[in-house]
Amino acid sequence: MKDAAALAAKGEPHGSAVVADVQTAGIGRHGHSWHSEDLGGLYLSIVLRIPLDSASMPILTMALGLAVQRAVNDFAQVSTDLRWPNDVMLSDRKLAGILVQAAGDALIAGIGLNVNQETFPLDLAGIATSLRRETGREYSKDELAEHIVAESLRYAALLTEKGRREILRRFEAASTWPRGKAVEVDGHIRGVTAGLDDNGFLLVQTPEKLETVIAGGVRSL
Q: In what order do the strands lie in the sheet with 81-83?
């Protein structure tokens, strides 16, 4: 994402992308690391120049999740799920993650996708997967990257043209997580998901009350 931010600072236009096979310092939400040592992964950052207020950043993350889901499903002929707010899942394991950061007058969409990895470190083997691991096929990362960039720009345009409600509607339709799923959030909130509010935050009905989850690690129970 640093390379894309540097390009944005030099005035690179909307839709410019940086693609890598390996990252030496992959990051996820809240500074978490992203395993990216294997050549089988696809790591791309896209410069976005769209009129977006800071309150809509979580909605953009979900819009990009929809974009990655559509691109992967169409390209690899699989059926992925979206875990709120920024994970693409396959067979209940993490396939891709999305992170959005501001960079001056632009936004940088960072996307990490497990494509051709056959194995993962022991601590990730039960929670991460790749397209190749699930289908037994090897994929062209260049072609997949083209699909992801095209869909990302399409969904970013959809957000600016149709507004956040359209993205929220589509996210709820494309994901099994926003409604009726028993979840735990960061080890201290347990309940059943009850939809998304107008800001894109996750609602969780606990035995005591309706909680609004602004951020955090959500896991199924």
A: 17-20, 41-48, 106-114, 93-103, 87-90, 81-83
